[in-house]
Amino acid sequence: MNTEATKKILLLAANPIGSRSLRLGEEMREIEEGLKRSKNRERYSIATAQAVRYRDIRRAILEHEPQIIHFSGHGAGEEGLVFEDETGAAKLVDAEALAGLFQLFSGQVECVVLNACYSQVQAEAIAQHIPCVIGMKKAIGDRAAIEFAVGFYDGLGAKKSYEFAYNLGCNAIRTAGILEQHIPSFLKIAQVESISANAQPSQKASSPISTTPIVSQRVFISYRSQEPDLSLAQHFYEAIKAAGHQAFMAGESIRLGQNWPQRIDRELELCDYFLLLLSPQSASSEMVIEEVRRAKHLRDLRSEHRPVILPIRVHFPWSEPLNYDLRGYLNQIQQREWNSPADTSRILQEVLSLLAGITEGEVFSTDVEEKISLSCSYIPMPVAEPELPEGQVDLASEFYIERPPIESRCKEAILKPGSLIRIKAPRQMGKTSLMARILYQASQQDYLTIPLSFQLADGKVFADLDKFLQWFCASVGRRLKVANKLKDYWDEIFGSKDNCTVYFEDYLLAEINQPLVLGLDEVDCVFQYPEIAADFFGLLRAWHEDGKNREIWKKLHLVVVHSTEVYIPLNINQSPFNVGLPIELLEFNAQQVLDLAQRHGLNWSFTQVEQLMAMIGGHPYLVRIALYHIARKDITLDLLLQTAPTEAGPYSDHLRRHLWNLEQRPELAAAIKEVVVSTSPVRLNSIECFKLLSIGLLQQQGNDVTPRCNLYRQYFRDRLRVN
């Protein structure tokens, strides 16, 4: 006669109104039938509760006094498990609340199974008090969840341990041909010596098995959801968490329905390390570039210089190019190179050593500054290359579309003594590419050329005018390869502008025997600092005026590149934005798009061009992206037009970056929402209008604005919840 006490299993299920329908009834039925068929069926009794409300949990535990509690339903990671409220709608119960509840029943409950997506967070909290807990590391499909549950209870029905039953459940997933066997996670309490000063040597304290370090670090993993990036990111994520640190990986950590822009910003703000998996795909990703920019901005602003950026080049040799922005952001930050799984262990060990504070220094130890190539790629980059390689210029490739008479006018103007060219256009319209061509044309006449982007300046540079002008002088001097002599020329008795002028006049320009073309890119960055902007732009205007009369200043030729009109007040007689040659880049016309399609090997007619332009207009970068993927046969024109304004289409990365930026600026989000909902042009506040024009989301019609293209109208109507 079997004298073993019967163990009670409490099956809880919740599928609130509005949540994705789950096969919870089938899961419960399979568990019950499996145990009934087992040889040890008398050992278990089952109680069930469906449509569980949050207050039903404690009532069911009190009523049934179970040793095993099994929950089936939805999970939302750190936000909690999804139960129901009185109306049947979703009600989240977080890990802390669940852990507190199970602590009260720790003398009774032996095992908790959370068969719900992203329930690892709750499992870890509950495992502080319950001997065995099972959670799910990420989203798990219905079939896999059912197979796991059946396998797990088959194991218990055969009188196996909880851990054996867990392994049997994982094997059941794999045996069914489902590649989700690694998603379930088994946690158990280990008896460890208490280190409390008041504890007796024989006393024990319970905590989940872990390898928690002295200081837990927060790591943000930036990657693209493509192989091998995805698998490598997953490997780093799991290893970093196993070492006791906190890791964030968007695919693992952000749940369906969460506000992902806010979550990413929060994690970037909190992280100590920014682990960048840099593959050829991620190097052309606007989202990755934006993540790196923000990580660098945070690092520059903080005295502790966190987050530390750790770039790993994945199948991305040193000879392959980085786009303009990434090269600037990662300049002098040392990197590692991953070429095969054989490299994983070595790099991972170094990363873990850094996190644990074992390795001296904060960054990898290989100097890569001289290894980064300046060559260009045919993949459409969101940011063009302003630097030019030696010899034949790949930048002037077959994919560069001229917009006559702009190029010829710029070529003629830049050679005039003391010249000034102003290029204005929204983002990704080809401003930097045009600047690069102007610099190249000047170099062919034996002029010295220097491209300088203000976007690459550290945030602290803009602290005050003196620091900003010193950075400006030092940056130009470094690119001219002359010694830094700021101490010799900077005299605090005189003003910053006077010191800067003297440094150029008596040193930088005096040291060279050739004309100098200075290409100033992204000058919009200076607009954000009105106290600096007025003086700096007044200085440029003064130098340009001096170039009309003084030989030394005739050497200096300026190309000023900006995204929109100046939205700070400048004295009309001190502004460089109303002198020189003004160039405004417009979108491609139908003939230019057809020309570009033919250069991609596409035998298109004007009808196909018109179909494409009806969605994206003549925006150069958006057109290049479309033609690139169609020419590679990644997608057809018809499918591209169907998916373009969704996150399943080729513009997903581009659109998500814009949405991320808008989420950080509620006033801009409100303005774009007003525009996309209207069927006629809208008049906006001047500052919001300037900024949205600069970003490239709007186009002007007189004093009013409309969405730049149908792509933006459709996407933002949906994502900003416009009815």
**Which spans of ≥5 residues are poorly predicted at pLDDT below 50?**
190-214, 365-378, 383-396
* Helix/strand structural class: alpha/beta
Mean pLDDT: 82
Tell how many strands the DSSP assignment holds: 21
> Number of helical segments?
29
Described by the principal axes of the CA atoms, the overall outline is elongated
Which range best describes the helical content: under 10%, 10-25%, 25-40%, 40-55%, 55-70% or over 70%?
Answer: 40-55%
Distance N terminus to C terminus?
A: 69 Å
- Multimerization status: single chain
Rg, Cα atoms, Å: 31 Å
Main sheet characteristics: 9 strands, mixed
> What percent of residues are in strands?
15-25%
Question: Can I get a quick summary?
Answer:
This protein is of the alpha/beta class.
Any overview of this molecule?
This protein has 723 residues and is α/β, with parallel strands linked by helices. It is built from 29 helices and 21 strands. Strands 1, 2, 3, 4, 5, 6, 7, 8 and 9 form a nine-stranded mixed β-sheet that branches. α7 links the parallel β10 and β11. α5 packs across α6. The radius of gyration is 31 Å and the shape is elongated. About 7% of the residues have low confidence.
Protein traits:
single chain, 723 residues, alpha/beta, 9-stranded mixed sheet, 5-stranded parallel sheet, elongated
Topology:
Layout: E1 7-13, H1 24-37, E2 44-49, H2 56-64, E3 68-75, E4 81-84, E5 90-93, H3 95-104, E6 111-116, H4 120-126, E7 132-136, H5 142-157, H6 162-175, E8 184-193, E9 204-208, E10 218-222, H7 229-242, E11 246-249, H8 250-253, H9 260-270, E12 273-278, H10 280-283, H11 286-301, E13 308-314, H12 324-329, E14 336-338, H13 344-356, H14 406-414, E15 420-424, H15 431-443, E16 448-453, H16 465-480, H17 486-489, H18 496-511, E17 516-521, H19 524-527, H20 530-546, H21 551-554, E18 556-562, E19 581-584, H22 590-599, H23 606-616, H24 620-631, H25 637-643, H26 652-663, H27 666-677, H28 686-695, E20 698-701, E21 704-707, H29 710-719
Parallel strand pairs: 1-2, 1-3, 3-6, 6-7, 10-11, 10-12, 12-13, 13-14, 15-18, 15-19, 16-17, 17-18
Antiparallel strand pairs: 3-4, 4-5, 7-8, 8-9, 20-21
Helix pairs in contact: 1-5, 3-4, 5-6, 14-15, 16-18, 22-23, 27-28, 27-29
